C-alpha cells in the first residue's frame, strides 16, 4: 500500500466517521439541554465513543449474510429509542418535578448510547464487506463520535442557559425529530 492510498483511505474513513458522528452531535445537542454537569458530559461522550467502536465491530463480525436484515432492524431500533427519549424529555419539561424519567446515567446512558450508535452497526456490516482496516476504522468512528458528542452536549448546555425552561422541550423535539427521520425512508 502506498502512502497516497493510505491517506485516501484515512480521509474516506474520517468522512464516514463524521457522517456517523453527526447523529451523536444532534442527539447530544438535544440531550445537552437538560441540566448536566461537565463530568456527566465527559462520561456520555466516552460512552458514545465506546459504543461507536463496539457496534461497527459487531457489524463487521456479523458479516455479509445478514447485512440487509440487521441493517434495517438496527436503524428501526435506534429510531424508536430516540423517539421514546424525545417524548420522555418533552413530557418531563411540562411536569413540575425537575427529574426526567430517563437520564443519561446508568441504564439511561446505555440506552442513549445504543440509540445513537445503531447506525454504526449497519455501517460496520458494509465496511466489513468492503475490507477496510478494522482497528483504524473503529478507532476513527469512536474518537470522532466522542468529540462530536462533546461538542453537541456543550452546545446544548449553552442553549439551555439561554432558553431556560423551554430548553428540555426543544431538546426532546430534536431527539423526536431525529428518531422519526431514522424511521422514514
Principal-axis shape: globular
Total of domains? 1
Largest sheet: none
Question: Using only CA atoms, what is the Rg?
Answer: 17 Å
Fraction of residues in helix: over 70%
Structural class: mainly alpha
Proportion of beta-strand residues: under 5%
Mean pLDDT over the full residue set = 77
**Termini separation:** 38 Å
Number of helices: 6
Order of helices and strands: HHHHHH
The count of strands amounts to 0
- List low-pLDDT spans: none
Feature tags:
185 residues, membrane, Putative manganese efflux pump MntP, manganese, mainly alpha, 83% helix, globular, cell membrane, transport
Walk me through this protein's architecture.
One of its GO terms (molecular function) is manganese ion transmembrane transporter activity. Probably functions as a manganese efflux pump. Its main location: membrane. Helix 1 packs across helix 6. The chain has one domain. By secondary structure, the protein is an all-alpha fold. It is built from six helices and no strands. The mean pLDDT is 77. The protein is 83% helix and 0% strand.
